[in-house]
Amino acid sequence: MPKVYLDYAAATPVDDDVLRVMKPYFFDIFYNPSAIYLSAKAVKNDIAMARAKVAILLGAKPSEIIFTAGGTEANNIAIRGIMDKFPKSEMLISSIEHESVREPAKDYTVNEIPVNKQGIANTDKLKKMITNTTALVSVMYANNEIGTIQPIQEISKIIDEVKKYRKKNGIKLPIYLHTDAAQAPVYLQLQTHKLGVDLMTLNGGKIYGPKQSGILFIKAGVNLQSVIKGGGQERGIRSGTENVPSIIGFAKALDIVTAKRSMQLKETQKLQEYFYSLIKEKLPGVIINGSVKHRLPNNIHITIPGTDNERILMELDERGVMCATGSACSASNDEPSHVLSAIGISEKDARSSLRFTLGNYTTKQDIEYTVDILTDICL
User: Fold this and answer.
1) Confidence band (pLDDT; 50, 70, 90) for 333?
2) How, if at all, do strands 214-218 and 65-68 pair?
């Protein structure tokens, strides 16, 4: 029986070259970078080189890169670092944010920016929602469930206009734009100055790097409240002895996906189109959720009306196909997806929806097998 993995949005396997560069830091050069002997200083220099590499890939400065233990931590640092510094302020998030943004945001005054039926943030509504007490706007670059790509550059221009207005009118409260870009690096450009973001989250576990690795880009001039206090590592914002293997692995993973991005984008788009064509041919009643045009090329999110997605998921699993009903981070929650609710999908249809996400090792044969099994289950 074939084994087909179609849940790359949840986790990616570690690339062989990533594992290779990580290995020495588990055994031969395991030293604490804060120690004073030469071998430890060499490891500290390796971290500095990894930071510089990440900065180059993002069009940023090394001082703007903070290494974190994954995307969730980076999102928490971004939100708490700003909102704790300005406790009387409020923040705005899109209504389709990942739980690692939604949950920490609940500790502050927060409002949700609505999205349209394709899952794209309503920028006209955003303009009206920003007040003189808004300190942070957080909109993800690409959605983890339906793959919708957000107009981050357009949102950045809105934030810039607000900054100009506040400066002109003597309003001292700053306003910052954060984007959770965890799903983006394999397929989308990440030059921070072109996106116009103040803060950006990346997650190594989504780019063929180690889990619990990641970064938070913090634009020069943006001062965050310290979130994890201790020995002062990572500019004192996120203290703790550095996870050197993960840092080295993350930098290598980002380097690899950046180099392969153009090719990977084209190849994955072809597979996505092939998946769509087979689905429409064999299951004509299927509904594709989210934007078809403004979408990650590896994401296929469908509703099969009248079915039970958990039953289908289990039957697919029994026949070797691994996919998802929604975000893996909320799989234990029996509530229907907040993302699907935000784009106007009923609870009934949400419970008939599946997500397939393609990756580096997906083949046409994988897709053919999956659609054949899906058709057999549903008809």
Assistant:
1) low
2) antiparallel
Q: Report the alpha-carbon distance of residue 189 to residue 121 in Å, rounded.
A: 19
8 Å CB contact between 356 and 373 = no
344: left (phi over 0), alpha (psi -120 to 50) or beta: left
What is the rounded CA–CA span in Å between residue 276 and residue 268?
12
The strand pair at 199-203 and 176-180 is best described as parallel
| 73, two tokens | 């931590």
- 378 catalytic residue (yes or no): no
What pLDDT shows up at residue 221?
95
Class of the CATH domain delimited by 4-12+262-378: alpha beta
pTM, two decimal places: 0.96
Cβ atoms within 10 A of the Cβ of 40, count? 16
CA 286 from centre of chain: 27
137 touches 176 (CB < 8 A): yes
Single out the catalytic residue among 171, 222, 329, 378.
329
Neighbours of 38 (CB within 10 A): 9
Q: What is the mean pLDDT of the chain?
A: 95
By percentage, how much of the chain surpasses pLDDT 90? Answer: 94
Q: What is the pLDDT of residues 135-183, one digit of tens each?
A: 999 999 999 999 999 999 999 999 999 999 999 999 999 999 999 999 9
Q: Which of 319, 317, 289 is nearest to 304 (CA)?
A: 289
Q: Rounded to the nearest 5°, which phi and psi values hold at 193?
A: -70, -30
Q: Using alpha carbons, list the distances in angstroms from residue 270 to 171, 218, 291, 300, 308.
A: 50, 35, 17, 12, 29
pLDDT at 329: 53
CATH class of 16-257: alpha beta
Confidence band, pLDDT 50/70/90 cuts, at residue 327: low
Q: Where are the domains of the chain?
A: 4-12+262-378, 16-257
- Asked whether the beta carbons of 289 and 301 are under 8 A apart, the reply is yes
